[in-house]
């Protein structure tokens, strides 16, 4: 399973709003793999987001990467409509840029340099109406939520090649923690081998309930073929 290429979010809105920020340490099978930092805000039905992802430790030697992302769009509750997304990724010394512009809820993807590694089975952007960019999906998962919006998400990310679906529903409260079950599903753009390997992947999101009722993500756990991937707030 490939994780969402970006788990990062949020820029300050031009209108007054409470900004969110956070930093997560990422580990795979107990070994440090990287960090994720984000800032974000929402006001008057609009959201803006920015963030950074960096590999470290053994992961940085095997797959050195630094990713910076930003997005803006509209939002109502847990429904997101991105308008413009941009990404700069530095991998193994090579810099690549990607831009998604949305018209009628459909992305138009531009990559520089062009994506020369596309396969025949990869999904076409013109067929991805109603999807969101990877960072919007990350924002939807990691941001602070009121009680009625925590553990209640159904969103379809598209990264330019692959379309997936992320669902969160229900949850178990114990003390000041709420653990939410989720499912990550492969939908389009994957090879026959990948679809035969596995389509649905479970994950969990742990919220800490703050005194004012705000639900704040403290941990995300994703079982993979490489071991458990953990994101822990620092």
Quick structural summary:
Keywords: Signal. With 234 residues, this protein is mainly beta. The protein is built from three helices and 14 strands.
Description:
Residues 1-18 form the signal peptide. Keywords: Signal. Residues 113-129 have a biased composition (Basic and acidic residues). The protein has 234 residues and is mostly beta strands. The chain has one domain (20-233). Helices cover 9% and strands 54% of the residues. It has three helices and 14 strands. The chain has helices at residues 57-62, 134-142, 192-197; strands spanning 20-28, 31-43, 46-55, 65-76, 79-91, 94-103, 106-112, 152-155, 163-169, 172-174, 177-188, 200-209, 215-224, 227-233. Strands 1, 2, 3, 4, 5, 6, 7, 8, 9, 10, 11, 12, 13 and 14 form a 14-stranded antiparallel sheet that branches. A hairpin with a 2-residue loop joins strand 10 and strand 11. The longest helix has 9 residues, at 134-142. Mean pLDDT is 90; it is low at 3-17.
Write the layout of secondary structure elements.
Blueprint: E1 20-28, E2 31-43, E3 46-55, H1 57-62, E4 65-76, E5 79-91, E6 94-103, E7 106-112, H2 134-142, E8 152-155, E9 163-169, E10 172-174, E11 177-188, H3 192-197, E12 200-209, E13 215-224, E14 227-233
For this entry, give a set of tags:
single chain, 234 residues, mainly beta, 14-stranded antiparallel beta sheet, 3 helices, 14 strands, globular, disordered N terminus, signal, DUF3108
